[in-house]
Amino acid sequence: MGSPTSMLSEFWTNRRMVVIAVAALLGIAIHLVMRFGLQSDERITLLPLWFVLAFGGVPLVIGLLKKVVAFEFGSDLLAGLSIVTAVLLGEHLAGALVVLMLSGGEAIESYAVRSASSVLRALAQRMPSIAHRRQDGQVVDVPLSDVVIGDTLVMFPHDACPVDGVVIEGHGVMDESFLTGEPFQMSKTPGSEVISGAVNGESALTIQATRPAADSRYAKIMQVMRAAEQNRPRMRRLGDTLGAYYTPLAVLIALAAWAISGQSQRFLAVLVVATPCPLLIAIPVAIIGAISLSARRGIIVKNPVVLETIATCRTAIFDKTGTLTYGRPRLTDQFLAAGEDAQYVLRLVASLERYSKHPLAQAILAAAESDHLALQDVTEISEPPGQGVRGTVDGHVVRIASHGMLTKHPVPGSDQMPAHAGGLECMIVIDERFAATYRFRDEPRVEGVSFIKHLNPRHHINHVMIVSGDRESEVRYLAERIGISEIHAEKTPEEKVTIVLAETKKSRTLYVGDGINDAPALMSATVGVAIGQNSDITTESAGVVIMDSSLEKVDEFMHISSRMREIVLQSAIGGMALSVIGMAFASVGLLSPVAGALCQEIIDVAAIFNALRAAIPPRELTDFE
Questions:
Q1: Are strands 463-467 and 315-318 parallel, antiparallel or unpaired?
Q2: Which end of the chain is more exposed for a tag (fewer CB within 10 A), N or C?
Q3: 39 φ/ψ sector (left φ>0, alpha ψ -120 to 50, else beta)
Q4: Helix residue ranges, H only, 483-518
């Protein structure tokens, strides 16, 4: 919470345009009633308009003068000229209408920002404020900030998980859809990891906190969300670019109309019609709409500048594991020692891996399930750090170790081990004799081939490469499967950055990754997209965070960006074209300043309504099979 002074200042900053718009509307209404309804003295009827110009016009003009001093000649300069000219020529009603246009447009933008942020606020409200901590044999409610690593917490049915942790008692399921975007129910048993913000199912679970609330996965994601609201770039950058051509044109038309006709009112009428609200308001509304649509699709836009730039990227660089693959290895080869039975060895190993945190455990369990093997009970299980997994299954001591471990500490039969291939493999030792070598591959995503194939024809990506820390044979295997010819394997994070920087000098780059080692490369690329939920550091480094680990969501964001740019250009150029037509009428005296202001209001409303389409999802957001 800030001080009362800072809170009041923030409130005024956020609401100022709304207040000015309301005051301008009331002032104009009172003027019209007094002038045409009550037929009051003309000097009295001007008082509400003078109030509008003083209360709303002066702050707006001062703000524009500050920009002029700083040599920032934006498209809103026309509006300032219109207000000043209206006052000098005694066209007070026209000046008040321009104040209403500017402040009303800003109010619409403010509303659009709040609407887009509501999706993020809804996610923020999921987080509990207390945790149920078990201490001294009782369950006590404590503030979330009091939870420390190692605390034992109880989650009752339907509770949101307060912190990241590990299940130590209970069996059940949890809904992690806030991360995946899909209603996946994840099974939880002792030893399973739980993620803050996930919603518990019907069974109570007891967990041990592995991170404090401030460092939890959910807290990090919320920081990303807040960054999407607070760290927005200048929304009018594209408007100012277009305004650099539009503003001189409008001023030249106004001066020409004045010079040819000798009537200063025509100068004002042209400027009033030219007030560029399609640039000032419609563009930010479209950008905020695209941010809102992205958030609803599970895509968090941290830096909205990527909405404009991703369509200009011509090089796409991908990490391998977890990005182009599922990050879930599959058992592909079983090399057995002489006399060993493949089904029996797999049954013993899978029975042990059922209780293991080994990264290849799920692949072994999946293989056993595929072969319909009945698992057996395990006793005396242990998993010393760096020493593999050991346990007793069906009276046999089973150990799962690395190739390097058995090379340093050989056992009988070690000479039958196949040559070390690196990467994903493990050695099976039964009763202190070598039994088998298991090798695994991380399979490419189903949509990988079609996604890569469509990048050039649909998104104009003409250069695609893989940059990975994995060994070359694994990277080349994947590249051949999905149709990428250029690979860079066995690269450190520093080497990845060097490659990305070199490519970015040639053309704008898109980098898609999911691991901690991708964070520096994400920051170095023109557009960095973090995919999935594997690393808090990665999400902090990217301009876009894809909550669901899916290439389809990457494509959705590219389409949202492309569609937003089309809508922006429609609103801006269409609005300017209509304004130019209006200026032509005003320059020959067919539109008075007041009529010109009303005409411009109609143009503004049309442009803004068109810009609001950016928040509406189209029928399809992907175009690959």
A1: parallel
A2: N
A3: left
A4: 493-506
